[in-house]
Amino acid sequence: MHIGKVSLLKKVKVIYNPSSGRQVIQRRIDEICKILLDNGYIVGKFATKEKNDAMQEAIRCCKEDWDIIVACGGDGTVNEVATGIIIGGRKIPVAILAAGTVNDFANYMGLPKGSKEFCDMIMDENTIDVDLGKWEDKYFVNVAAGGFLTNVAHQVPTESKNALGRMAYYLEGLKEIPKQMFNGINVKISSEEYTSEEEIFLFLVSNSSSIGGFKMLAPKAQVEDGLLDCIIIRKSEIQDIVSIFINILTGEHVNHPNVEYFKTRKITIESNEKVQVDIDGEYGGTLPATFEVVPRSFKIFC
Ligand SMILES: Nc1ncnc2c1ncn2[C@@H]1O[C@H](COP(=O)(O)OP(=O)(O)OP(=O)(O)O)[C@@H](O)[C@H]1O
To answer: So which residues are the signal peptide here (predicted)?
Structure first.
């Protein structure tokens, strides 16, 4: 890991999604702002109201003289802040406070959640430059996915997430299993490392190893290797699918003959069918898609 130092950082903009996770973040944000103010930082707060607010605010931060952004929400909020910083064109370091329902990226990075530990992380000024994934003008910090159950994340209503947290995803997933269990997708996959035309069940193009709350889904993924980890699960008999899904818990699923696992800089996936693509838990569009890595383009505190 290459850890850098940032010096004389003083103006902090806290961008938070008040609807993310189970809406317990307001008090934590107040605590964090107080600690930062007590330590000489200038603090501004911005609450998002709807899609793209976090992105627009991050773009504004790049144009103004903000030194640090605190991104508080789930993977979707972190995604918007990262996208805004890329568009804004100034690599402002970001401190990620996980407050969403799943928070795959923050969990993978092992980022602190307690107010004091979180502020210590900012004041220690250790940062790391991580990769982002890109699809046309869209970016992802964690994962782009299509196929079996990948639509669940963007289908669960905010009210259910607030009431049930992660359980909302499990319930939606259970509802969808019988509908999707036998749906294969015919795709054409093109990359330097793997090319095929086949019927698949699911594809994942990932930056970190943690996807949908499963910590080992892309077991060899590293966020600073300049590569995206691809997992293709072919259409399989039910007993194979069960075996693959059981082994996801340990990362052994990638050794199953119906699973293809490789790293790449760029991959194109096409289909004649209408296949939705999920980007960091939000709806991103439909295939065809070319995903590529933008190495070390996002600076975060760690
Ligand atoms: N005030 C708001 N009320 C409702 N929805 C909002 C608000 N602000 C932002 N959003 C929506 O929430 C999305 C991001 O959600 P986020 O990922 O932060 O939380 P989550 O879905 O609870 O967490 P996770 O992605 O970890 O499951 C944004 O893309 C936007 O569409």
So the answer is: none
Residue 80 lies in a domain: yes
- Which three-class secondary structure state does DSSP give residue 86? helix
Q: Tell how far the Cα of 161 is from the centroid of ligand 1, in angstroms.
A: 10
Cβ-contact 173, 150 below 8 angstroms: no
Given a cut of 60, is residue 6 above it in pLDDT?
no
CATH number of the domain where residue 69 is located = 3.40.50.10330
ipTM of the complex: 0.94
Give the domain extent around 193: 140-293
- Nearest residue CA, atom 28 of ligand 1? 51
pLDDT digits (tens, 9 = 90+) for 236-259: 888 998 899 899 989 999 999 999
Check pocket membership of 26 for ligand 1, CB cut-off 6 A.
Answer: no
**pLDDT for 189-234, tens place per residue?**
999 999 999 999 999 999 999 998 889 999 999 999 999 999 999 9
CA of 77 from ligand 1 middle (Å) equals: 6
Is residue 26 domain-shared with residue 51, that is, in the same domain?
yes
Q: Which tokens hold the place of 241?
A: 């699918």
> Among this protein's residues, is 193 annotated catalytic?
no
User: What is the CB-side half-sphere exposure of residue 140 using CA atoms within 13 A?
Assistant: 29
